[in-house]
UniProtKB/TrEMBL annotation:
GO cellular component: plasma membrane
Domain of life (superkingdom): Eukaryota
Main location: membrane
Source organism (scientific name): Gossypium stocksii
Name used for this protein in its record: Cyclic nucleotide-binding domain-containing protein
Residues of the Cyclic nucleotide-binding domain: 498-595
Family: Belongs to the cyclic nucleotide-gated cation channel (TC 1.A.1.5) family.
Protein keywords: Calmodulin-binding, cAMP, cAMP-binding, Cell membrane, cGMP, cGMP-binding, Ion channel, Ion transport, Ligand-gated ion channel, Membrane, Nucleotide-binding, Transmembrane, Transmembrane helix, Transport
PANTHER family: CYCLIC NUCLEOTIDE-GATED ION CHANNEL 15-RELATED, CYCLIC NUCLEOTIDE-GATED ION CHANNEL 15-RELATED-RELATED
Pfam families: cNMP_binding, Ion_trans
Stretch list, region Disordered: 698-723
Entry's Gene Ontology molecular function annotations: calmodulin binding; cAMP binding; cGMP binding; voltage-gated potassium channel activity
Intracellular or extracellular location(s): Cell membrane
Length: 723
């Protein structure tokens, strides 16, 4: 939007241009923009003829383009130099988001590749082998296999370098915005990467062992075996350190992105155990190579005693057919001098490799033996090592003891923590149960009560596994809590006929207020005459519900409640009253669990809120449903029908008796037989008895009337809401 304003003297026009506001701070390399006034708008000055008045701040801006074009390009460059994560979708094809799913997935893949490369590199130490002709050779098949596997692992490091050049980073000055701005300028990303960790990644990606054993060593003068053994030791260790170093920042990135390296306790324990085994693997490979060097040192010592017939080059298997070597070897006793059973040379901690012929064994045999040696001494902190007086051997033993102590404290400690986390709740439950037993003995509770407490604790553990569901849900956001409660309780709540007419929001409110409840077999949830403080919705299990009408003799009504049913509807009657009393209603029934019961409880204060919304429904329909599904109303209705039926039967019998009596009175008296005269006193007595029976029936009928033997339940008054 542009606004042109003419100044009173007619000499200058101010052109106001709206500036595109952005949340980004100015980059250091961005040229300064034209000056801004207090309203945050760019101000450019022009003469009346349209020529621009140059100012010092605009001399740095390119003058070949119009001001609006220059400003648009500057803003475009600004927008593309930094971006927030939510705006990253526009440039995601060119630059990768460090917190995006692609980088998170690649970090896990690259972590596995790093672990594989850390496992492969020490295997190069197994290339030298000792043969029975007292010479050292190179295992060509193993050399080819390791070259192929190592080249494949190096490809992942090269891909990692390429990805790092295309991964945005968070600008440090922008962290005041919370998550910060992502710098997506490829030049800045490359410059920052080259200044920081590029050289470490490049050193880790170089194929140094392959170049060494296939190109450099064959072209060197002297013994090929000697050059391979000596240079491998330094090259592998030199490149192993940066590769090992890359594991730690990579693990930190995974933890920052996902929270943990592994999502399960068993995977975490396996990860730490694998690192411990990796250390044993490295120590075993180093011990194997040093054993060959110690054996070679013994050969050289014996060779010095047999000069000038013996030369060091004879210990290379490429010289095994040399005539001079054949002459020397046939007359030499070097095999007996360098035997591990001989005490003429101190082999120290490398004696086991020579005694069990590990240096000349097939690859898998010597590998597993060396792995076992490394694991055994790493776990025992090198306590079983008997070293000689060689400084290098002693230093190697010190490294084993120190590394074993550190790894045992860190990796094994972490693995123990992971494994204990799977049973920590079980241990807590056992401790709590022990405390409960001590408390019951201290209070001298009867055996029946103790058994009930034990059964409840056992069932609660089986149902929840020690998880506090309420505490777990409280730590979740409101929408997640609502969805979880809806999933668990909605179908159950809809089974209640009084709730099936409510809308979704109201049902969600009810579900949010439901609390889990557990009952063992034989537990009385409520007794007849006790106050009702909650309404229960049964998930699983069965209960008996019965009433004696306040202990009335000869009266008993019983029914069974199962999954999907509810009890405690007296509380609903109390809550539906527009003016409920402070005193909770008394239960008209006794509810007893006949099996383990799991339910959701809706407490009195929560039910008040539900009832306040429920009174907005159609009162006649509500009253009908409440009467139809309430056990209290069903009992009263059954008693009412029973009383009406008895009253009907009594009236019917009384009417029949009256008809018979009237018939007897209306009939003419038969002619008296001459042989059997009838007395008038007998007729009067019969009429008096009939009149007495009729009076008794009428009195009994007036006493019973329409009164039911069971008192009619209280009915909520909806007149307030209807008015």
């Amino acid at each position: 939007m542009c606004v042109c304003t003419l100044i009173s003297d007619g000499t200058i026009i101010y052109l106001w241009l709206h500036m595109c506001f952005s949340r980004f701070k100015d980059d250091l390399e961005l040229t300064k923009l034209p000056p801004m006034n207090g309203d945050g708008m760019v101000k450019l000055k022009y003469n009346i003829n349209g020529t621009k008045i140059l100012e010092p701040c605009t001399e740095r801006v390119e003058n070949k383009l119009p001001a609006t074009t220059r400003r648009g390009k500057l803003l475009k460059a600004k927008v593309l130099s930094r971006v927030f994560s939510e705006d990253f979708e526009r440039v995601k094809k060119k630059i990768l988001d460090p917190r995006g799913p692609v980088i998170r997935r690649w970090n896990k893949i690259f972590l596995v590749a790093c672990l594989v490369s850390l496992f492969v590199d020490p295997l190069f130490f197994y290339l030298p082998i000792v043969k029975k002709d007292v010479c050292i050779d190179i295992a060509i098949p193993l050399e080819v296999i390791l070259t192929m596997v190592r080249s494949l692992a190096d490809a992942f490091y090269i891909v990692q370098i390429f990805i790092r050049f295309r991964t945005a980073y968070v600008a440090p000055p922008s962290r005041v915005f919370g998550r910060g701005e992502l710098v997506i300028d490829s030049g800045k990303i490359a410059s920052r990467y080259l200044k920081k960790s590029f050289w470490i990644d490049l050193l880790a990606a170089l194929p140094l062992p392959q170049v060494l054993i296939w190109i450099i060593i064959p072209n060197l003068n002297g013994s090929t075996m000697m050059n391979t053994k000596n240079m491998l030791r330094f090259i592998i260790i030199f490149q192993y350190l940066p590769r090992l170093f890359l594991i730690f920042p990579l693990s930190s990135q995974i933890v920052n992105a996902t929270g943990v390296v592994t999502e399960t306790a068993w995977a975490g324990a396996a990860y730490n155990l694998m690192l411990y085994m990796l250390a044993s693997h490295v120590l075993g490979a180093c011990w194997y190579l040093l054993s060959i060097e110690r054996q070679e040192a013994c050969w050289k010592t014996a060779c010095d005693l047999e000069e000038p017939y013996c030369q060091y080059k004879y210990f290379d298997c490429n010289k095994v057919k040399d005539p001079g070597r054949l002459t020397w070897f046939n007359s030499s006793n070097i095999t007996s001098l360098c035997s591990p059973s001989s005490s003429s040379y101190p082999f120290g901690i490398y004696g086991d490799a020579l005694e069990f012929n590990a240096t000349a064994a097939p690859f898998f045999n010597k590998y597993f033996y060396c792995l076992w040696w490394g694991l055994r001494n790493l776990s025992s902190l090198g306590q079983n090592l008997s070293t000689s007086t060689y400084a290098g051997e002693i230093i190697f033993a010190i490294i084993i003891a120190t590394l074993g102590l550190v790894l045992f404290a860190l990796l094994i400690g972490n693995m123990q923590t992971y494994l204990q986390s799977t049973t920590v709740r079980l241990e807590e439950w056992r401790i709590k149960r022990t405390d409960t037993e001590q408390w019951m003995r201290h209070r001298q509770l009867p055996p029946e009560l103790r058994q009930s407490i034990r059964k409840y604790d056992q069932y609660k553990w089986l149902a929840t596994r020690g998880v506090d569901e309420e505490a777990l849900l409280e730590g979740l956001p409101l929408d997640l809590r609502r969805d979880i409660k809806r999933h668990l309780c909605l179908d159950l709540v809809r089974r209640v006929p009084l709730f099936d007419q409510m809308d979704e929001r109201m049902l969600d409110a009810i579900c949010e207020r439901l609390k889990p409840a557990l009952c063992t077999e034989g537990t009385y949830l409520v007794r007849e005459g006790d106050p009702v403080n909650e309404m229960l919705f049964i998930i699983r299990g069965h209960l008996d519900s019965y009433t004696t009408n306040g202990g009335r003799t000869g009266f008993f009504n019983s029914c069974q409640i199962g999954p999907g049913d509810f009890c405690g509807e007296e509380l609903l009657t109390w809550a539906l009253d527009p003016r409920p009393s402070v005193v909770l209603p008394s239960s008209t029934r006794t509810v007893k669990a006949i099996s383990e019961v799991e339910a959701f409880a809706l407490r009195a204060e929560d039910l008040k809120f539900v009832a306040a919304q429920f009174r907005r429904l159609h009162s006649k329909q509500l009253r009908h449903k409440f009467r139809f599904y309430s056990h209290q109303w069903r009992t009263w209705a059954a008693c009412f029908v029973q009383a009406a039926w008895r009253r009907f039967k009594k009236r019917k019998e009384a009417a029949k008796l009256r008809a018979m009596e009237d018939l007897m009175v209306a009939e003419p008296e038969p002619e008296p037989e001459p042989t059997k005269p009838v007395s008038g006193l007998a007729i009067y007595a019969a009429k008096l008895a009939a009149s007495t029976r009729r009076g008794i029936n009428m009195h009994s009928e007036s006493d019973t009337g329409v009164v039911s033997p069971l008192q009619k339940p209280a009915e909520p008054d909806f007149s307030v809401d209807e008015e």
